[in-house]
Write a structure and sequence with these properties.
Layout: E1 10-12, H1 30-33, E2 46-48, H2 49-54, E3 58-65, E4 68-74, E5 83-88, E6 91-95, H3 103-111, E7 117-119, H4 129-135, E8 141-144, E9 158-161, E10 164-168, E11 171-175, E12 184-188, H5 191-194, E13 197-201, E14 205-206, E15 213-214, H6 227-237, E16 244-247, E17 251-252, H7 256-272
Parallel strand pairs: 6-7, 7-8, 8-9, 13-16
Antiparallel strand pairs: 1-2, 3-4, 4-5, 5-6, 10-11, 11-12, 12-13, 14-15, 16-17
Helix pairs in contact: 6-7
């Protein structure tokens, strides 16, 4: 650092979220200690970018559709979510970067136009946002004000927001709540050949049947959301044009608007006790 002390960026081995520069790792990861996540039976452990590179981790960039690319690691790291790079004439948005970056992968992103803004749906999927920002000209990292307490690596590049925010022309974040109070989605009207696409992270997860979506306070610990939270998500996303949906782990290639409404109304019916067992 500026005082000549040796510092290291430690990332939690379980969630792969980077933490503040320090000479030694924190005693615990507050993200994983929360009821929505977990500390594995083996206990809290930490890793670093240098260690991951030594173990053969690499960044992989793949095209999903015109102007949309997945950013993942091989082998899988942490929660295993995919980042998404949305390319526009006004710059690119990196949505939920992985918890690792290497120079070869960064060069591939650079060739696609670099990164003008970074954002995530909620704290679990912030990955190495600050490392990506520093690599790409200190691009702003947008964090919902409602979950600023979960920021693990404070930095001057962080910008707080709430409600609704246009990251770049044609790319708007909407705060839905639910999984976290600040859980958000990113609307891309130009996506899917102009039919509209929604990037949801874990605000809306794609069901294993690929015909449904879901929203939970905790997916891994099976903590549901109340009806009011589900209704708020519906009220936020239904007015948007979306025929395609990209979550952190899956996608709905078509009929996303219909599937979202049907799935969440079914959810509310079950939590009200309207459905027979």
């Amino acid at each position: 650092d500026e005082n000549g002390n040796t510092v290291t960026i430690f990332s939690c081995s379980t969630c792969a979220i980077e933490h503040a520069d320090a000479p030694r790792p924190p005693s615990s990861c507050e993200i994983c200690s929360d009821e929505r996540q977990f500390v594995p039976r083996s206990g809290q452990s930490w890793t670093t970018r240098d260690e991951l590179e030594a173990r053969g981790f690499r960044l992989v960039v793949r095209e999903l559709e015109p102007d949309l690319y997945s950013i993942t690691t091989e082998p899988e790291l942490g929660i295993g979510q995919r980042g998404l790079l949305v390319c526009t004439p006004h710059g690119n948005v990196l949505w939920e970067p992985p918890g690792f970056i290497d120079e070869a992968g960064a060069a591939r992103i650079e060739a696609l136009g670099g990164v003008a803004a970074i954002a995530s749906s909620h704290p679990h999927l912030t990955g190495s946002s600050i490392q990506y920002s520093h690599r790409f000209g200190r691009a702003p990292v947008y964090v919902a004000r409602a979950y600023r307490e979960w920021i693990r690596r404070p930095d001057a590049v962080i910008r707080l927001w709430e409600g609704e925010l246009e990251l770049l022309p044609g790319l708007v974040m909407h705060q839905c709540g639910g999984h976290f109070a600040g859980s958000s989605v990113l609307h891309w009207p130009a996506g899917n050949a102009g039919q509209g696409a929604l990037l949801t992270g874990d605000t809306l997860g794609v069901g294993a049947d690929r015909k449904s979506v879901n929203s939970m306070r905790s997916f891994v610990n099976n903590i549901p959301l109340p009806e009011r939270a589900i209704q708020r998500i519906l009220d936020t996303v239904l007015p948007l044009d979306l025929e395609r949906l990209y979550s952190a782990f899956g996608e709905l290639p078509g009929d996303a608007h219909v599937i979202v409404e049907r799935s969440l109304r079914r959810y509310m019916s079950w939590v009200r006790g309207d459905e027979p067992e």
